[in-house]
Amino acid sequence: MDLFPEIPLSQWRDSKETLHRFTQIVGKIRLANSVRRNHWWNVPFHLTGRGITTRPMGGAGGNPVFTVDFDFVDHRLTASALDGSTTSFPLLGHSVASFYRETLAALGRIGVTVTLPHPHPYTLPDAHRPFAEDTEHASYDPFWVNRHWQVLSQVNLVLEEFASGFCGKISPVHLFWHSYDLAVTRFSDRSVELGADVDPVTREAYSREVISCGFWFGDEDLPRPAFYAYAAPEPTGLFGRPLRPAAALWTERGGSRLATLDYDEVRGGPDPRAAVLDFYASLYESAAPLDGWDVARLASPGGITDPLARG
Q: Of 66, 95, 148, 220, which has the maximum CB count within 10 A?
């Protein structure tokens, strides 16, 4: 398969909107059944060899340890418990409402009881509508859903390679279901006071200085797949600094400013992987010194911090 195959948003927008809500349902189950981690690291999905996974959770409140997996090859949702019991159902043919009901029923079959405090979409246009009432979103094209997983899998490895060059506090490479983006985030140890007027989700996510890099498939504000990078809080003088490669742009989106690199610009180039790594590096090389990060001390070329191994 080609690196970064074609995935225009226009070809699978309806499927993406449905799948996004499917993942929010399972993501909220994960949120309700996992131990809270700093910056919400307990909440996102991780890539697997067939789709995405919640990783094990539960083990408290009467529930067994269990995992929920999206299989984007055979297009099924599978729930598994630590005792070996498992159950699954097809992803194809469901509205958000029927998927919600079937997911809860599947969990019940392996002995898991879940009550979501707010069973509605998060930061989506229909956030007012309960999952159980959403019969509007019911599209699922297996070809494009499988293609999106293939793209995520390839980008995941690029982000892992970029992550290897930093030995400070850094997140896993993980898939956030609120905006459906794959990201890795580098942190400094300086606290950021955001104030009580900022929502608690944002306050936890950005309680330290961060430089974050990632990828998303596009949305209403930016209707095309793109790689992105940003620093938060944004250091003075960062916006407008030169980016690499030449196709990279500074973008204002949803009240924030970030660097973007169009997916289709990259996939047609001679070395797409190197271009994306260079893009992420160009943002980091500008933002980290402006924030006063000790770039040399935080470096781990090739993932190596052992001075003898470096040669």
A: 66
